[in-house]
């Protein structure tokens, strides 16, 4: 018996519905979205100003450390941060970017044009070992210095992920969000950058966009109340209070949230 148009439409909807449902991120009970707060370079104001603010509300952040900036005195601070449940990530040793100058102490060329893929991956592996000595963990996430992912003109992000050197790699300077598991590219995770003089309202607008779409969003900070690329402490705190007033938003580490999404792919 030939299908009527009505029955054909009904069958089509039944077939397509599971595919549509699978496309959405299925958050833990009570959660409707996720925000990952990430902080670059290992600035001292991060353990001084950020960590206490996060701990107050049980939030977990991710701190991407840069090897050449770390001192012996910094290590106990970051070890304590890790022990409190926050994530330490890899931001390379020399923070190589396009057209960067030589390191004033070592004379090391910090321009990506001085690198090959193998040289960059070796540096990242060494930094991983350094991080493991601090936090005792064998796997780490990664943040591209300056958001740039080409060493000597060739992409090093994809081979880094494929070889299992790092689990996820964060970009910068975009308001893109992840709204489905199929969107997650471990080598190219978007992040909204909070630049100097940014107001809490700008950060909250991004968070509201993430919540409205039921997705996952990353915010990138550097110094909070000092250091460089500085966001005012009061503005950062206002954003934290906004998140605290919305328990339906999961504020988790970069790796925890992305691993949760990846498991749904």
Write structural notes for this entry.
There is one protein chain. The radius of gyration is 20 Å and the shape is globular. A hairpin with a 2-residue loop joins strand 5 and strand 6 (154-155). The chain has one domain: Alpha-Beta Barrel (TIM Barrel). It is built from eight helices and ten strands. It is α/β, with parallel strands linked by helices. Strands 1, 2, 3, 8, 9 and 10 form a six-stranded parallel β-sheet that branches. The chain has helices at residues 5-23, 44-57, 74-83, 117-135, 157-162, 200-212, 233-244, 254-262, and strands spanning 33-40, 62-65, 87-90, 142-143, 150-151, 154-155, 169-170, 192-193, 216-221, 249-251. The longest helix has 19 residues, at 5-23.
The structural domain count equals 1
| Basic shape | globular
CATH topology: TIM Barrel
CATH architecture: Alpha-Beta Barrel
Rg, rounded, reads 20 Å
Mean pLDDT: 91
Write out the CATH superfamily name.
Glycoside hydrolase/deacetylase
Provide a count of the helices: 8
- List SSEs in N-to-C order: HEHEHEHEEEHEEHEHEH
**What fraction strand?**
5-15%
CATH class: Alpha Beta
Level of helix content? 25-40%
User: Poorly predicted ranges (pLDDT <50, ≥5 residues)?
Assistant: 5-22
């Amino acid at each position: 018996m030939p299908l009527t148009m009505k029955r054909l439409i009904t069958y089509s909807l039944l077939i397509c519905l599971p595919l549509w449902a699978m496309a959405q991120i299925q958050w833990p009970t009570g959660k409707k979205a996720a925000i990952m707060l990430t902080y670059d370079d290992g600035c001292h104001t991060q353990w001084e100003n950020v960590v206490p603010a996060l701990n107050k509300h049980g939030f977990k952040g991710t701190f991407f450390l840069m090897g050449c900036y770390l001192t012996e005195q910094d290590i106990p601070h970051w070890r304590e941060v890790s022990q409190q449940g926050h994530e330490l990530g890899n931001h390379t040793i020399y923070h190589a970017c396009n057209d960067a100058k030589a390191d004033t102490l070592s004379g090391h060329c910090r321009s990506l044009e001085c690198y090959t893929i193998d040289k960059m991956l070796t540096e990242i592996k060494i930094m991983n070992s350094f991080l493991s000595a601090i936090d005792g963990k064998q796997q780490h996430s990664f943040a591209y210095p300056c958001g740039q992912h080409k060493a000597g003109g060739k992409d090093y992000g994809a081979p880094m992920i494929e070889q299992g050197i790092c689990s996820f790699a964060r970009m910068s300077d975009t308001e893109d969000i992840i709204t489905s598991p199929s969107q997650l590219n471990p080598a190219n995770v978007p992040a909204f950058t909070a630049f100097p003089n940014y107001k809490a309202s700008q950060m909250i607008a991004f968070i509201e966009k993430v919540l409205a779409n039921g997705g996952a969003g990353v915010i990138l900070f550097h110094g909070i109340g000092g250091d460089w690329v500085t966001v005012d402490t009061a503005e950062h705190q206002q954003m934290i209070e906004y998140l605290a007033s919305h328990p339906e938003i999961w504020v988790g580490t970069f790796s925890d949230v992305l691993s949760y999404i990846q498991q749904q792919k």
